[in-house]
Every structure is written in structure tokens, then in C-alpha cells.
Amino acid sequence: xxxxxxxxxxxxxxxxxxxxxxxxxxxxxxxxxxxxxxxxxxxxxxxxxxxxxxxxxxxxxxxxxxxxxxxxxxxxxxxxxxxxxxxxxxxxxxxxxxxxxxxxxxxxxxxxxxxxxxxxxxxxxxxxxxxxxxxxxxxxxxxxxxxxxxxxxxxxxxxxxxxxxxxxxxxxxxxxxxxxxxxxxxxxxxxxxxxxxxxxxxxxxxxxxxxxxxxxxxxxxxxxxxxxxxxxxxxxxxxxxxxxxxxxxxxxxxxxxxxxxxx
Length: 263
Hints:
Layout: H1 23-46, E1 51-52, E2 55-56, H2 85-89, H3 91-98, H4 101-112, H5 141-161, E3 164-166, E4 172-174, H6 178-194, H7 198-206, H8 215-228, H9 231-253
Antiparallel strand pairs: 1-2, 3-4
């Protein structure tokens, strides 16, 4: 029985038979990620209004140099350049997100149209993958993971310090302000995002052919996998909240917002 031979033709850029609004998620990602990058860059160069009382903006944590009780050094050592403290540390969390497996698929579509969407024609005719420059640099994601795990500890300490308020005599007392909760939620969301990382799942046991007989590895793998199933939601929620945390501390420092003391 003869069968008809169907000749496959390459779709032109944007050509598709899809009838759904496939471009909406890409436009949304383009707007949100561009807005975040613009705000984070602006905030990093401000070098001001990054602390209020016991609160420290996550964009400036750890505060390596500054005239602040949060700072590691009051005066910059010779090996630290005289720039905004945020510029010294933001490349690490930024590198972790930029090389994230989920974000790759998102900004490849939103910024590069590579591809614009499933079953949608793309502008390029060849595929180089991530084995050549510059995309081979995406492989450093696993190393940025180590820095991200360290940052979780530092941000957790910042959140804890956010519950200790100094009185007129300088003695610190436990209390709860709205900013305390903002910084705590920030750590929770960042932890959900970081601890659900694909690279971490591989690290704790994903590289093994068999997990049976290794109960600790199996439990760790299951926990990371549980968070990984919601990786997209953790990614967007933590991105929004880390920016909001900086906005909250900044506006309180500027006197525009008043921090609500709950306890």
C-alpha cells in the first residue's frame, strides 16, 4: 500500500498553526525580568538607604564594607575596591539565577526567541547547543549553587537580627516588626528556590543509579525533588520578594514608609 510522502518545511520566524496566545508568557517574562534587572542595577549603584534599624536589604547582604553595624569592615581593606557594596556580592546570586535551568528556558524564549515557543518558527536555522561559547558558560551553574547555599545562611542570620531592636540606651530587645517578617519570608522563598535546584538534586543523589540502601541520600533526594516540582513558582515568588524586600527597607530608610511594630 502506497503511503504519501510528506515533505517537512522549516517554519518562518513566528509562523505556527497554534491558535492559543502562546506569546503572552514570553511577553510577561520579558517585562518582569527586564524590570527586575533595571531595578536591581539601579539599587546596586545607589549605595544608600539599604538598612533601617536591624533590617538590611538582601541586595547588600553580606555588607562587606560600610559605615554600619551590619558591615564586616568599617574601612575597606586595600584589596576591596571603593565601589557600592552591592556590586561586590550581587554577581553571585545573579549568576545563580542567570544560569538556572528554569530561567534559561524562560529568557531564551523571551529575549532571544530561541525558540519563541513550542511549534513556533524561530529566527535561526542552526543549533549549537550549550557546548560552545558563550552558552557553555551555563555549566558554571553548579558552582554558583555553592555560593547560593552560603548566601542562604547569611540571609537567615540577617532575618534573625531583624527581630532584635535597640532601645534608646543601645540595648537590644526581641521584637517583631513588619520588616522582620518581610526578611523572613524572603529567606523562606529563596530557600525553596535554591534547595529545589536541579543541580542540588543531582548532587545529593541524582547521579546514583540506585538509591535503595542509602536512606539518607534517598530522603535528601526526595526532599529536593519535592521542592523541584514547584521550581517555577519558587523562582518567580523569590524573584519578586527579594526585590520587594529591598524596596521595603529602602522606603523605610527614606521615611516614606513606617515600619509597623507588631510586638
